[in-house]
Amino acid sequence: MRAILLIILAYPFVEIASLVYMADKLGGGFVLFWVLCSALIGIAMLRNQRIGTLLTLGALFNQKGNVSVYSLLWPVRYLLAGVLFLIPGVISDVLAIILLLPLSGPGPKVRMPDGAAPSDGAIEGEYTRVDETVDRDRHLHK
């Protein structure tokens, strides 16, 4: 428990030290640009989180077969990556990029409910074609 507390207390200092080191090696303007761009990426990710979550979950449930628990956690990983991009620093940005990598975990498979059969993309239904007769006098060009 002490180790976790020590890591949490040391994290801001390590982030600040990494930013100072980068500013020393690459320049302050580049580091400022880096921090602003990563913050804008984080804001954009968090703003689009609602739509992305719905689309991801919908695509997962339309897949044939089993759905892994690891893929169900993608919206949580995306949200956490957005928060990490908002935190200024190199370490948080690297952690956010690692979270966004498309890694497939060894998680157990979840069976689809009996009523929710996976679809193959076809929509069943009936239709009737109704052609409207065209009046030649109504056309603009003759």
UniProtKB/TrEMBL annotation:
InterPro entries given in the database record: FxsA
Bilayer-spanning residue ranges: 26-46, 79-103
Keywords for this protein: Membrane, Transmembrane, Transmembrane helix
Record Pfam families: FxsA (PF04186)
GO cellular component, one term: membrane
Protein name listed in UniProt: Membrane protein FxsA
